[in-house]
Design goal:
- It contains 5 helices and 14 strands.
- The protein is α/β, with parallel strands linked by helices.
- The protein has one domain: 4-Layer Sandwich (Nitrilase/N-carbamoyl-D-aminoacid amidohydrolase), CATH 3.60.110.10.
- It has a 6-stranded mixed beta sheet. Strands 6-7-8-9-12-13 form a 6-stranded mixed beta sheet, covered by helices on one side.
- The chain is globular and about 55 Å long.
- It starts with a strand and ends in a 20-residue tail after the last helix.
- 46% of the residues are buried.
Length: 290
């Protein structure tokens, strides 16, 4: 069997501009910071990289303010996707970029664009599950629920899927991505300490071993004034198909987290744990009932 070792990277980055600043200034600052981190990852040999959720701004879901509608741009025709296509081609790197997407005027999504290593745009995933249930996560003010299902993208390094932040609490989508052929699933997130921190290293390793693929879990670090809804605790990590965390970033600092992923492990583990063979979809009725 041919070696299929992929060097993968995750970016976690603190906010570099005050939330009182104009949105274009915030976007420019965070984009410049992320571009520099992509360059760092490229120098270290990364072949695929994913950003944190809504990488070019703050986590503005902490409040309900029409100001943040100005963060939207089209995918793939907007300037950030075009910039990232150029970077992907320059570094021969697959990029997964989390952005605030404008579909139609007033119709916006929390979206990840997937760009191949030659700079070609492959498609996008729109966040399916939108939280609006406790202070500091008012996402239904900003995002319509995703309507494009669970696509898997055939990239230069393998088959890549995306799930975004709150989606990770829903096991059905993880399985859909596995059934669609995903070998690596990236989950760009903005998650704070407190309510769900204990789940951070429980759910995604469980999803990786239940579905037998790699997961790259990305979380932004630091706190963001004036909301201060909690500490975004970083600790972005990779987990293998056995559910083992193999690389982890720091808690509260900027970081490029790198790991070598042996995609042949997926076949090895699936030949041991026959979860896909032994599925009984004809018995699963309640989970798809409205």
């Amino acid at each position: 069997m041919d070696d299929r070792i992929v060097k993968a990277a995750l970016i976690q980055a603190t906010l570099s501009e005050s939330t009182d600043s104009p949105t274009e200034k915030i976007k420019s600052s965070m984009t410049d910071k992320t571009v520099a981190m992509i360059e760092e990852a490229a120098q270290k040999g990364a072949q695929v990289l994913c950003t944190q959720e809504l990488f070019n701004g703050p986590y503005f879901g902490a409040e309900q303010n029409p100001k943040w509608y100005d963060m939207v741009e089209q995918i793939p025709d907007g300037p950030t996707t075009k910039l990232m296509q150029d970077l992907a081609a320059k570094h021969k790197m697959v990029l997964i970029i989390s952005l605030y997407e404008e579909d139609l005027t007033g119709v916006y999504y929390n979206t990840a664009a997937v760009i191949d290593a030659d700079g070609s745009y492959l498609g996008k995933f729109r966040k399916i599950h939108i939280p609006h249930c406790y202070p500091g996560f008012w996402e239904k003010f900003y995002f319509r629920p995703g309507n494009m299902g669970y696509p898997v993208f055939d990239t230069a390094i393998g088959k890549v899927g995306v799930y975004i932040c709150y989606d990770r609490h829903f096991p059905e989508g993880w399985r859909e991505l596995g059934l669609n052929g995903a070998e690596i699933v990236f989950n760009p997130s903005a998650t704070v300490a407190g309510l769900s921190e204990y789940l951070w290293k429980l759910e995604q390793p469980a999803a990786a071993c239940a579905n037998i693929y790699y997961v790259g879990a990305i979380n932004r670090p630091g706190t963001e004034a004036p909301w201060n809804i909690g500490e975004f605790y970083g600790t972005s990590y990779f987990v293998n198909p056995k559910g083992q965390i193999i690389e982890e970033g720091p808690r509260s600092e900027d970081a490029v987290v790198l790991a070598d992923l042996d995609l042949n492990m997926i076949r090895e583990v699936r030949n041991t744990w026959q979860f896909y063979r032994d599925r009984r979809p004809e018995t699963y009725k309640a989970i798809v009932r409205p």
